[in-house]
Every structure is written in structure tokens, then in C-alpha cells.
Write a structure and sequence with these properties.
The structure holds two protein chains of two kinds. Helix content of chain A is 34%, strand content 29%. By secondary structure, chain A is of the alpha/beta class. In chain A, the strands form two sheets. A six-stranded mixed sheet of chain A has the order 6-7-8-3-9-10, sandwiched between helices. In chain A, strands 2-1-4-5 form a four-stranded antiparallel sheet, with helices on one face. Chain A is globular and about 45 Å long. Chain B is α+β, with helices and mostly antiparallel strands. In chain B, helix 1 packs across helix 11 and helix 2 runs antiparallel to helix 12. The chains are: A alpha/beta, B alpha+beta. Chains A and B meet through helix 2 and helix 3 of A and helix 1, helix 10, helix 11 and helix 13 of B. The structure holds adenosine-5'-diphosphate and magnesium ion. The site of magnesium ion has 4 residues of chain A, from helix 1.
């Protein structure tokens, strides 16, 4: 099943008189259960692409279909609604809410989805368990290391059982050990839950976890290969 | 349900000092509002009471030809057989007291100094004279006193007169000439209103009538009602072609005008103070919106809607408002209560008899105006906070996430 389908997507940033063509006509389909890595040099459009898939942003032209639903033309609130049940995010910086404990950070998307207190408690503990952070549930982000924060962020991204988890350079600010740990956790969750992961990275140690690698350059897909070496035919 | 209060409380706790200071600004603003309101109300209430009780009464019955500016005791200006009329008015249910008074102009001389005064002949027994019964020395007049006089404290001071001293009083008589006679100071009164006390002397009505040649006549029947709002009704009930009946509103047009005007004036002051205060609050919230740009982006990314983000920031404003307005109310109320007891000394403001003010102004805060102010401060704070809150909600998640 297609979780995301992008057709002829462009994204042009306009800052004053300067136009930057961040994406130049992208066609990309993400299937359910994929563990896909977007690679490419800095400035090649990885973040922009993730933001479009994640409905954080809208394309200048082209269409983005998420879970069978056309997203272009949705208003801000409709996009927020789509995100909250369908898409989880892990950011490069450790994007936890500083005033909330690890527990409360993971709980937030469940609150936004109107889950009952009992459901929330069960789900949060289950997830903190899965990322190995159950014993730090009541710590605030500033009491956690970068790796720990990122693991909590992964737990939060998964809280509502989203179809699609998008991670933008999730290991960029982590040392090798913590980076691998976070990747292991994501891989494990991918296998156990069947959730789809798409992550942007240019870290070769991370790319090795992927079963599909999409290479971007200058806003175009340069190469799209399965981990088994086979080129995908739809590009 | 998202516990907005928990979130808001923690967010305010991130910058304790800043939150405290903006709460304090709101508290001081609210306190100032209350105090100013209490001051104005106290001032107006005092002016109204002093003027009505000391000077105009609630109703005055006068001869149809009476001219208050002349202070003349020429017979054509006066009411005949005034005690009888006063007694008749007194029988009305809503009338507290009705008493004849005679006004004449005169000059008090003692040693080498002379001061122009208004002579008022009063029925010493009438409760309408209660405001003059506070004496710094001596005794009040009695009806049959033939050479006693009651003078005000400031006049006694300026002429160096004490109880038992003799002064010479000159009066403009009914036939247009003058007469003079020595009087003995029986007592020295104070009403706490220097403007009034320095220019008035009292004689028993009978003596004043004889001395000025007015006979059994009076300038006015001074009427106090149980409820001053009944003045128009009573005036209509006792009207007659032989008399003019004036209500306190007609007698104190300036004061009534100033009173109405002071309400409008107060509203303007309120909005100025609130404007300043609210600017501080809005500024605090704007700062926190800018600081938390990225956090707003994260919340938005995980599905928080604009409305919920607005609620989050409004809840912060609400908590600030609860803290600030509560503290401000306590401070303002305490200050108003204190100065309502002790008063604030202004001395003789030199106002005319048209608007008498006590030398001390006692602040006076009505529950109604306190509640109005609390609600106004609250509502305005929340309304003003809508702007930063909306701004947070309108941020595009992408831009918010980029924001450092
Ligand atoms: N908000 C923005 N405004 C203007 N230009 C932008 C913005 N975001 C990205 N760009 C530009 O778009 C291009 C692609 O950026 P990005 O998607 O961040 O690439 P990557 O994540 O691969 O480094 C770059 O040239 C970048 O400068
Ligand atoms: Mg990037």
C-alpha cells in the first residue's frame, strides 16, 4: 500500500528577489513498511522533501498524496489534523518540549488525539520501555543526554501509531554509539510495528540500516536503489 | 483534555522574574485604578454631601421673587410666616426635616479687622443644623439667646476671637440701611470645610429677624429628605404660585455636572492606565512567542491546532491576570480602606459654596466599581493577549521549526 505518493513536486523558496529551487520535479512513492533513507549533499533538498511529505509545508506545484488523501489545498488546521494521526516526526535537534517530562512529551500527541487517560498511560510506558527510557520517564529534557532525548523523541513520534515516521538527520547531533542506538530502535520498531520510516541523512553509518536509499542532488532524485542493489524502475 | 493550566503554569515558571514583573505591573495598574476610582468617588461623595448638608439642602422653598445672589432681607424677597410653612412640609412622610433660615449679608469686626460674612439665622433646635454642631470651643446657640453668635473656626483664628469675646456685627437691613450691634461669641464651630467655615456666622432665627428688620420672615425653608432622589416628587407636591421650590439638582448644577463629568473622566484614566499595563503583558507574551517559536513549530508538527495554541497562550495571560488582578485588588482595596478611614489632607481648596469639599478627602470604593474594574482589567488583558496568541497560532510549522 502506498503511504505517500509525490507527483511532479517542485518547491521554490522566494526570499526577497531571490528564488531557490529546492525541489525540481520529484516523483516518489513510499510503500507501507519501508525503511528508506534520503541521502545527498547539504542543500540538495532532503529537508524540504521531508517537510512536504509531512504536510508541514506545501509544494509550489505538483501533488502530494498521503495515505490516499490529496493534501494540496488543505488549510492549516486540516493539515494539523492529518499530521496528528498519520505522521510522526523526529527532528535533527532534540525537539522535546522543555517544560514537559519525558513521559509528558510522549503523552502530548496522545492528548492531541483525545486518547483516554488509561490508554495514554499504557501506551506511553510501552513506548518508553521500547526505547529504553522507562526509568527516566519523570525527567525533563534538560536532565537527559542528547541520545536519551532523541530516543524520547522517537517514542513520541510513534505514540499515535502513525503510518509514517519522518526523521530529519536524527543522528546528526549524536555520537556514534548513541546514533547507532537510535537507529537500532527505529529499525526494531519498523520490524515490530510495520511502521514506515523515511529519514534524511548523509551519515554512511546510518545509511546501512536502510532498505531503500533515495539520493537527491539539486532538488532532483539522482538515484533510487533498494538495499539489495536493484534500481527501482519507477523513476 | 490537554491541561492548559499545567502547561501555562510551567511556561510562566521558565522566566519567573519576568512573569513576576509583568504580574506586578498588572497588580500595580489594577491597584492604581482602584485607588483613583476610590479617590474620585470619595471626593464626589464628599462634595455632594458637604454641599447638600451644609449649603443647599435637598429642597429649598423660597418666595416667588427671591433672588439668591442679593442676600437681601427686603420683605418682598422673603417668605412670610415661615415656621408655619416649615411645619406643614415637615408633615410629609419623605421629609426628614424642614426649617426656616434667614440669610443676610454682614461684616464682622473685632479689634481693627473686618471680614465680610454671610449671616444665617437658624432655628437652633432643628436637626438640620447638626453639621454645625461640632464645636472646637463653647456652646451651640439657643433660641432665646439675644446677643450670642456662633462663628467658624477659621474666622475665629483670623480675627483672634475666642469664646466669650465680643465682636461687632454689621448687617444690611430690610429697609436698605445698615445696623450694627455687639455680639458675644458663644461657640466656635467647624464643619471640616474651611471654605464654608470662614465666611459664615450663625444667629438664632428670632434674633436675626429682629436685628435685620425682617420680621417674621425667612429667606428659605431648608428641607432635608429621607431620600434625595425623591426631591423632584416632593417639589411637585408642594409647589404653589407664591413660592419657588428648588431641588438640590437645580441648586447645584455645577456640582451635578462635575459629578457626571468625573465618571467620564475616570473612564479615560482607566483606559490610559490599563493601556500601559496591558502593553507590559502583551510585551511579555510577545517575547515568549518569539522565544518559543521552535517549540510552537514542534507542537504544530505533532498536530496541535491553531485554536489550541491560542488557548495555550491565553491561559498564560489568564494566569498572569488572575495573579496580577488579585494582588492589585488587595493592594488597591487596602489603600482605599486605609485612606477611607484616615483621609488625605488637602486643606482649603478655596472652592466656592457651589462645590464644598472637606479639608480631608476620604477615599470611597463602591463594590460595584471594584467589580467593574476587576472585570475590565481582566477582559482587557485577555483581549490584548489575543494578538500575541494569534501570532503564535499563525506561524507556519516549517518556519517555526527553522526559527532559532
Ligand atoms: N526556508 C527557506 N527559505 C529559503 N531557502 C531555503 C529554505 N529552506 C531551504 N532553502 C534552500 O533550499 C535548498 C534545499 O534546502 P534543504 O531542503 O534544507 O536541503 P538539505 O536538507 O538537503 O540540506 C537549499 O538551497 C536551501 O538554502
Ligand atoms: Mg536538511
Amino acid at each position: 500500500m502506498e503511504v505517500a505518493k509525490l507527483t511532479d513536486v517542485t518547491r521554490i523558496y522566494k526570499v526577497g528577489q531571490v528564488e531557490t529551487r529546492a525541489l525540481n520535479g520529484i516523483n516518489l512513492t513510499i510503500e507501507s513498511g519501508e525503511f528508506t533513507s534520503l541521502v545527498g549533499p547539504s542543500g540538495s533538498g532532503k529537508t524540504t522533501l521531508l517537510q512536504l511529505i509531512g504536510c508541514l509545508d506545501q509544494p509550489t506545484s505538483g501533488s502530494v498524496v498521503i495515505n490516499g488523501k490529496e493534501t494540496t489545498g488543505l488549510n492549516r488546521n486540516q493539515r494539523a489534523d492529518l499530521r496528528k494521526g498519520t505522521i510522526g516526526f523526529v527532528f535533527q535537534f532534540f525537539a522535546l518540549i522543555p517544560t514537559l517530562t519525558a513521559y509528558e512529551n510522549v503523552e502530548m500527541p496522545l492528548l492531541l488525539n483525545g486518547k483516554s487517560a488509561a490508554e495514554r498511560r499504557k501506551r506511553v510506558m510501552e513506548l518508553l520501555e521500547a526505547v529504553g527510557m522507562a526509568d527516566r520517564a519523570n525527567n525533563r529534557p534538560d536532565q537527559l543526554s542528547g541520545g536519551q532525548q532523541q530516543r524520547v523523541a522517537v517514542a513520541r513520534a510513534l505514540a499515535t501509531n502513525p503510518k509514517l515516521i519522518l526523521a530529519d538527520e536524527p543522528t546528526a547531533n549524536l555520537d556514534t554509539e548513541n546514533g547507532e542506538q537510535v537507529m537500532e530502535i527505529m529499525k526494531k520498531l519498523n520490524k515490530e510495528t510495520g511502521a514506515t520510516f523515511v529519514f534524511a541523512t548523509h551519515d554512511p553509518r546510518v545509511i546501512k540500516y536502510a532498505n531503500r536509499v533515495v539520493t537527491l542532488q539539486d532538488g532532483l532524485i539522482l538515484k533510487d536503489s533498494q538495499a539489495n542493489g536493484k534500481q527501482r524502475g519507477d523513476q | 483534555m490537554i491541561n492548559y493550566f499545567k502547561l501555562a503554569y510551567r511556561n510562566l515558571g521558565r522566566h519567573r522574574r519576568r512573569s513576576f514583573l509583568s504580574g506586578l505591573a498588572l497588580a500595580l495598574g489594577t491597584a492604581l485604578l482602584m485607588f483613583i476610582a476610590a479617590f474620585f468617588q470619595g471626593e464626589m461623595r464628599s462634595a455632594m454631601e458637604s454641599t447638600l448638608r451644609l449649603n443647599s439642602g435637598h429642597l429649598q422653598v423660597r418666595d416667588a421673587d427671591y433672588d439668591p445672589d442679593k442676600l437681601s432681607v427686603a420683605w418682598e424677597y422673603l417668605i412670610e410666616n415661615p415656621s408655619h410653612i416649615a411645619a406643614q412640609i415637615q408633615t410629609l412622610d419623605v421629609v426628614q426635616t424642614a426649617t426656616p433660615r434667614l440669610f443676610a449679608s454682614g461684616i464682622v469686626s473685632a479689634r481693627d479687622e473686618s471680614v465680610g460674612v454671610q449671616i444665617i439665622g437658624i432655628d437652633p433646635a432643628s436637626p438640620a443644623n447638626d453639621p454645625y454642631r461640632t464645636l472646637t470651643a463653647g456652646e451651640f446657640l439657643t433660641a432665646d439667646d439675644r446677643d450670642g453668635i456662633l462663628i467658624g473656626y477659621p474666622l475665629a483664628q483670623s480675627l483672634g476671637l475666642g469664646v466669650g469675646d465680643t465682636l461687632t456685627l454689621l448687617v444690611n437691613t430690610a429697609d436698605g440701611s445698615v445696623d450694627q450691634q455687639p455680639f458675644t461669641v458663644r461657640g466656635i464651630f467647624t464643619t471640616g470645610t474651611t471654605a464654608y467655615d470662614k465666611g459664615i456666622v450663625f444667629l438664632p432665627l428670632a434674633k436675626a429677624q429682629a436685628f435685620s428688620g425682617a420680621g417674621d420672615r425667612a429667606s428659605i425653608i431648608f428641607v432635608l429628605l429621607k431620600d434625595r432622589e425623591q426631591a423632584e416628587a416632593v417639589a411637585a407636591a408642594i409647589s404653589s404660585p407664591n413660592y419657588q421650590v428648588k431641588t438640590w439638582r437645580e441648586l447645584n448644577q455645577l456640582l451635578v455636572l462635575v459629578n457626571d463629568f468625573s465618571d467620564a473622566y475616570l473612564v479615560v484614566i482607566n483606559f490610559i492606565i490599563l493601556g500601559v499595563t496591558v502593553t507590559v503583558i502583551v510585551n511579555t507574551l510577545l517575547m515568549s512567542v518569539f522565544e518559543r517559536t521552535r517549540e510552537i513549530g514542534i507542537l504544530s508538527a505533532i498536530g496541535m491546532k491553531g485554536r489550541q495554541i491560542v488557548t495555550l497562550f491565553l491561559t498564560e495571560a489568564f494566569l498572569l491576570a488572575v495573579g496580577g488582578v488579585t494582588a492589585g485588588t488587595l493592594i488597591g482595596w487596602a489603600a482605599s480602606a486605609y485612606f477611607g478611614k484616615v483621609g488625605i489632607y488637602f486643606g482649603d481648596l478655596g472652592l466656592s459654596a457651589e462645590m464644598l469639599l472637606e479639608d480631608r478627602i476620604y477615599t470611597y470604593l463602591t463594590l460595584e466599581s471594584a467589580i467593574n474594574l476587576i472585570i475590565t482589567a481582566f477582559v482587557i488583558t485577555l483581549l490584548a493577549s489575543l494578538y500575541p496568541a494569534q501570532m503564535a497560532a499563525r506561524m507556519e510549522p516549517v518556519e517555526a521549526l527553522h526559527g532559532k
